[in-house]
UniProtKB/TrEMBL annotation:
It holds the Pfam family Ketoacyl-synt_C. Gene3D superfamilies: 3.40.47.10, Malonyl-Coenzyme A Acyl Carrier Protein, domain 2. One of its GO terms (biological process) is fatty acid biosynthetic process. The keyword Transferase applies. Keywords: Transferase. This is Polyketide synthase. PANTHER family: FATTY ACID SYNTHASE, INACTIVE PHENOLPHTHIOCEROL SYNTHESIS POLYKETIDE SYNTHASE TYPE I PKS1-RELATED. It comes from the Bacteria. It comes from Actinoplanes sp. ID05-A0871. Residues 1-79 form the Ketosynthase family 3 (KS3) domain. GO terms for molecular function: fatty acid synthase activity.
């Protein structure tokens, strides 16, 4: 008996059965017990593997675990939804300008971080994928009080910006700030009047994250509107209509908030 691991083993077994669409036979059972009336009800003992076909609802199963103390735990498992296909393969590789975020406890520490990133990552023999570096900087490192962002569209621009930051110089695309530890931003969605023809079209073309979330918003709106979200972004006349501009602004702001979130900016609140 697997003792305390019995329940976990049962869960793993059933998850694998759901994944492969096959109910495995019960081991070491040749003949069903005569002490059970198998004709009553719909319970069967699996003496052979049995296919578990797809139907119009997720597969579900119960897993029971009886402890030696008499404790009985019963868990209901449900098949996980299929992963949503992303738009990455259909979108261009370019992500436009990316933000390399760095921080330090003080100004010398910030400069040292810039010098280290330039020396160890960007100035190496194999050019890195800039968007991957940017993502790692905001998701795997603590944000300290002295902060800076280097905006760059390619590795050469990134190296120039980091060089300026490391030496205390200034250049376009390098922004410094001394922030408060623990503070988080509040995002405000704008109201009608902030739109313009062509808004968000560059981000749709440049950012897979933004484009995917816009696609999800378009699908959600599609049931209720007769216009196409992506088409009205460049339609000045359509954006003058209240029934168009307000849902369109909502979709742009939701997608922009997701883009900020992916870049490591988690708001304390969203209002508007």
């Amino acid at each position: 008996h697997t003792q305390s691991a019995a329940g976990v083993a049962g869960v793993i077994k059933m998850v694998m059965a759901m994944r492969h669409g096959m109910l495995p036979r019960t081991l070491h059972v040749d003949t069903p017990s005569s002490h059970v009336d198998w004709s009553a009800g719909a319970v069967q003992l699996l003496t052979e593997n049995q296919p578990w076909p797809e139907v119009d609802h997720p597969r579900r199963a119960g897993v029971s675990s009886f402890g030696i103390s008499g404790t009985n735990v019963h868990v209901i498992l449900e098949q996980a939804p299929e992963p949503v296909e992303t738009l990455d393969a259909q979108l261009p590789d370019s992500t436009g300008v990316v933000a390399l975020a760095l921080s330090g406890h003080d100004e010398p520490g910030l400069r040292a971080q810039a010098a280290a990133l330039l020396r160890e990552v960007l100035a190496g023999q194999q050019a890195p994928v800039l968007r991957d570096v940017a993502w790692s900087l905001v998701t795997t490192r603590s944000m300290l009080s002295h902060r800076a962002v280097v905006l760059a569209s390619d590795v050469d621009e990134a190296c120039a910006g980091l060089e300026a930051l490391a030496t205390g110089g200034g250049m376009a695309g390098v922004v410094r700030h001394e922030g408060r530890l623990g503070s988080r931003p509040v995002m405000v969605f704008p109201g009608q009047g902030s739109q313009w023809a062509g808004m968000a079209t560059e981000l749709v073309a440049a950012s897979p994250v933004f484009a995917q979330r816009m696609g999800e918003c378009a699908a959600a709106l599609g049931e209720f509107v007769e216009w196409d979200l992506f088409a009205v972004l460049s339609d000045e006349a359509a954006l003058e209509r209240v029934d168009v501009v307000q849902p369109a602004l909502w979709a742009v702001m939701v997608s922009l908030a997701e883009l900020w979130r992916v870049h490591g900016v988690e708001p304390a609140a969203v209002v508007g």
